[in-house]
Amino acid sequence: MKLHFLGANRQVTGSRYCLQVGTQRILIDAGMFQERQFEHRNWDQSPIPLDSINAMLLTHAHLDHCGLIPRLVRQGMNCPIYCTLPTAPLTEVILRDSAEIQAEDLKYKIRRHQREGRKSKYPEVPLYEVADVETTLPMLQPQPYRKSIEVAPNVTATFYDAGHILGSSSIEVVAKENGDTRTILFSGDIGQWNKPIIHDPTLFERADYVVMESTYGDKDHEKAGDIETQLANVVNETAARGGKVIIPTFAVERAQELVYYISKLVHKKSIPALPIYLDSPMAVDVTAIYARYRKFFDDEMWELIRANQSPLEFPGLQMVRTADASKAINTVTGPAIIMASSGMCNAGRIKHHLRNNIEKVEATILFVGHQGDGTLGRQILDGARQVRIFGQTFRVEAHVAQIYGFSGHADRTQLLKWIGSFKAPPRQVFLTHGEEAVALGLASYIEKEKRWRVRVPQYNEAADLE
């Protein structure tokens, strides 16, 4: 029995693992690499023969977990893809959007390279197209939480709520080989406790092997005041300057959570009346999916719905779908809130809004999520005075702010709470989905405090599960 680590190893994006049980191969996640220094891995040939994969398990619908699936299908993968009920429609929206963005960005890049007389270091073709997404979608096999399903001979999987986004899961895999049984737990992305809209993460008592994310394994989320107060302060200060608040937004979970908190500020009149744009066709579609799958909401969200105060819609909120409507936002004068994807500023409409506002001293660029190493968002957040957007250099004159508490990831204390629920030590813990220094630091702490075996795998490394 082997476990191959094919992504999110000593870095944050590109989650992918392959569990080999006898002749069976089970892929867990297939995410896109989003850090600039690792983007070339999206083009690499799979070290696992794709036509040998018997089944795939998908923890949730974020691009760094599902974004490479159509490329693998294009290259020969053809197997059932098991996921939770809400994950299937969310994945459809995200993959379609990804394919469309790639096509749009490629056209722009080709024109720019022709103008500059140079060639790209990557093939001037998209990773995949909408047609590849269409081929992928029938493979999705949505499943309920907490129901054990056989995904391959001698291999069963059970999905549990991970509290990260709607439909997110930790996956418990039970595999039998040569008379031995092993339980392998894939944490997926672990969410925070007491977050709005969705349920808290599931705690587990045992597993033989644990693959755990470590995104915030070196620190706790800063407590700079409650989210409502932080958000109100940024909006009010920017509005007083006559500027716009530009918020790079992940279309799944973060956009809906932002809308949730902004709706509270609007209802309480804690911010002035101003236009509020959710400028992302994908985020608009995802919000509709959230409403459709509201049986997965937590009790607090249900109380608001029953009181006819659904936070997913309120006066002043404008859902922007078309490119023309997005461009029209640039003609709006005075204060406004503009939420647009992508969350790390590496693609999508947010780059256009940054280009139009980053040199305006009255504007604020507000970050509400993790910015991967090497991304445009990380450069701005780290204080770069100049950045390149669409091949042009812009001065960073706008105010840059960050709100803490929005993260969909558990922090160090919460990760230790999650792993601390085990009543017996696993045979080994593998830390993934964290930058190298962060994962190594958390591994050292767990080894010292619990005396457990902890390993931080390298990219393309394999481990024997004996």
Describe the structure.
The protein is an alpha/beta fold and about 475 residues long. It folds into 2 domains: about 1-220 and about 410-465, Ribonuclease Z/Hydroxyacylglutathione hydrolase-like (Metallo-beta-lactamase, Chain A, 4-Layer Sandwich), CATH 3.60.15; about 225-400, Rossmann fold. The protein is built from 13 helices and 22 strands. It has helices at about 65, 70-75, 85-115, 130-135, 225-240, 255-270, 280-290, 300-305, 325-330, 350-355, 375-380, 410-420, 435-450; strands at about 1-5, 15-20, 25-30, 55, 80-85, 140-145, 150, 155-160, 170-175, 180-185, 210-215, 245-250, 275-280, 315-320, 335-340, 365, 385-390, 390-395, 400, 430, 455, 460-465. The strands form 4 sheets. Strands 6-5-4-3-2-1-22 form a 7-stranded mixed sheet. Strands 7-8-9-10-11-20-21 form a 7-stranded mixed sheet, covered by helices on one side. The protein is globular, with a radius of gyration of 22 Å. The termini are close together.
